[in-house]
Amino acid sequence: MTLPAPYPPLVSGGEGLDRYPGDALALAARIAAVYAVPADQVLPVRGLTHGLELVWRLAARDGGSVEAPKAEPYERLAAIYPAKGEPAVVVIRALGSPEAVAEMAARVAPALLVVDEGLIEFSDSVSAATVVADQPNLVVLRSLSLAYGLAGARVGAAIAQAPTLARLASVLEPYALPEPLVRLALQALDPSRMIETAERIASVRRERERLARELGRDLTIEPGVGPILMARPQDPAAALAALKTYGIEADLSGDRLRLPVSIKPEVNDRLLAAFGLTPAKRRPARVGQAVRDTKETRIVCAVDLDAPGPIRIETGVGFFDHMLEQIAAHGGFSLRLQCEGDLHTDPHHTIEDSAIALGHALKQALGERKGIARYGFVLPMDEANATVSIDLSGRPYPLFEGTFDTPFIGDYRTDLTAHVFRSLAEAMGAAVHISVTGQDDHHKTEAVYKAFGRALRQAIRVEGDAVPSTKGVL
Question: Taking the CA of residue 70 as centre, how many other CA atoms within 13 Å lie in the half-sphere pointing to its CB?
Answer without folding.
Answer: 1
